[in-house]
User: What shape does this take?
Amino acid sequence: MTAPTVSLGLEQAPTAHPKLLAWVREVAELTTPDRIVWVDGSDAEWQRLTDELVASGTLVRLNPEIKPNSFWARTDPTEIPNSVANCCWLIFRASRSLFVGLTMNI
Assistant: This one.
């Protein structure tokens, strides 16, 4: 049995590096994603991605006067072990770095 060929974004790859493209294709065939998104780390991309996550309800923007470029993301308690069922993720961006921290609210 052969895995299906995946091209859901490989045709827009920002690289022609054959080993990188082969690795991405291999991982995509194993994981069967809906799409492959190539990221460039630009401010525009960061804004688009965070806007999408806020619109979908995955992230909640924190007060920009107190925590600029910061978000709150609550985990789904049905998807994590009971021992950490009362935790949430705090995601914020300082300069061009992304920080993700787990906060335990037990």
